[in-house]
């Protein structure tokens, strides 16, 4: 289970403590609350350190670790913190407001996760598809990351169902790798799925989702495919809503979603990272 959902479980356990005004009751429950805090902190921190050891370094990994560190400090200073809050009524109100805002944010995250799951269930092949566009997702040591491998596997499955249309693999140079991401993707499709090289078009300059779509336009034009035609967009489940929004912003009139599952061990951390990426993209008018 993701460390992020461990945090949710933890908050369900101690939520009552936030509004506990009885010193005797708070004191009697303090050992259990501190133990739960320490357990949650250790799990969150361990989950984050494990993901960092796998080179999964992004906001979705770091945020649960920050929560874990905060819970660890909370557990150590629990008695002092509760006493300090009880002695200052004005801070009790502020404490409630902080937790109220946190629960509203947590609800928005849960709704976003539900939307991602719902959309991933509605990825179906369309027989009118004119091209398949597989978005890059990272390479390491000239090999696809597990997330990118899932995208390529999904794209290959779709390509075998629609054997007459071209496949665009989009991804540029990656630091520390000899090959571009597009070259790694094409090699994986030919070696692992035995797709003919003649079907695969390489877009090897992109370093962002927006550039994936922008730079792929020239390849589509070369093959007489218009932006008004149905074009399958293959990417991870968490990335799909933002990718489709960016595609429409850039003039793709019929981007067809085709979802690839995110590996379970990084799924909810990746979904959490995408929550912030989706919000920031909206604020920056990317779609």
TrEMBL record:
<feature type="transmembrane region" description="Helical">
    <location>
        <begin position="35"/>
        <end position="53"/>
    </location>
</feature>
<keyword id="KW-0812">Transmembrane</keyword>
<dbReference type="InterPro" id="IPR014729">
    <property type="entry name" value="Rossmann-like_a/b/a_fold"/>
</dbReference>
<feature type="domain" description="DUF218">
    <location>
        <begin position="130"/>
        <end position="276"/>
    </location>
</feature>
<dbReference type="InterPro" id="IPR051599">
    <property type="entry name" value="Cell_Envelope_Assoc"/>
</dbReference>
<dbReference type="InterPro" id="IPR003848">
    <property type="entry name" value="DUF218"/>
</dbReference>
<dbReference type="Pfam" id="PF02698">
    <property type="entry name" value="DUF218"/>
</dbReference>
<feature type="transmembrane region" description="Helical">
    <location>
        <begin position="65"/>
        <end position="85"/>
    </location>
</feature>
<dbReference type="GO" id="GO:0000270">
    <property type="term" value="P:peptidoglycan metabolic process"/>
</dbReference>
<dbReference type="GO" id="GO:0005886">
    <property type="term" value="C:plasma membrane"/>
</dbReference>
<dbReference type="GO" id="GO:0043164">
    <property type="term" value="P:Gram-negative-bacterium-type cell wall biogenesis"/>
</dbReference>
<keyword id="KW-0472">Membrane</keyword>
<feature type="transmembrane region" description="Helical">
    <location>
        <begin position="97"/>
        <end position="118"/>
    </location>
</feature>
<protein>
    <recommendedName>
        <fullName>DUF218 domain-containing protein</fullName>
    </recommendedName>
</protein>
<keyword id="KW-1133">Transmembrane helix</keyword>
């Amino acid at each position: 289970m993701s460390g992020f959902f461990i945090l949710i479980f933890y908050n369900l356990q101690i939520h009552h403590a936030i509004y506990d005004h009885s010193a005797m009751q708070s004191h009697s429950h303090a050992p259990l609350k501190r133990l739960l805090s320490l357990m949650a902190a250790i799990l969150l921190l361990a989950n984050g350190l494990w993901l960092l050891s796998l080179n999964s370094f992004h906001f979705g990994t770091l945020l649960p670790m920050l929560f874990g560190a905060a819970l660890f400090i909370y557990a150590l200073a629990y008695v002092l913190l509760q006493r300090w809050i009880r002695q200052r009524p004005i801070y009790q109100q502020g404490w409630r407001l902080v937790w109220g805002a946190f629960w509203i944010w947590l609800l928005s995250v849960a709704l976003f996760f539900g939307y991602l799951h719902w959309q991933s269930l509605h990825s179906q092949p369309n027989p009118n598809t004119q091209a398949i566009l597989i978005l890059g997702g990272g390479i390491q040591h000239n090999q696809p990351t597990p997330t990118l491998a899932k995208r390529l596997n999904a794209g290959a499955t779709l390509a075998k169902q629609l054997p007459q249309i071209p496949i665009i693999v989009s991804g540029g140079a990656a630091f520390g790798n000899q090959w571009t991401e597009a070259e790694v993707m094409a090699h994986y499709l030919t070696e692992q799925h035995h797709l003919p090289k003649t079907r695969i078009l390489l877009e090897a300059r992109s370093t962002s989702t927006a550039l994936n779509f922008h730079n792929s336009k020239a390849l589509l034009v070369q093959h007489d495919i218009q932006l008004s035609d149905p074009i399958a967009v293959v990417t991870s489940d968490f990335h799909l809503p933002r990718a489709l929004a960016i595609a429409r912003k850039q003039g793709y009139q019929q981007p067809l979603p085709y979802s690839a599952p995110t590996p379970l061990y990084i799924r909810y951390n990746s979904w959490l990272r995408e929550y912030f990426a989706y919000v920031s993209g909206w604020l920056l008018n990317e779609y």
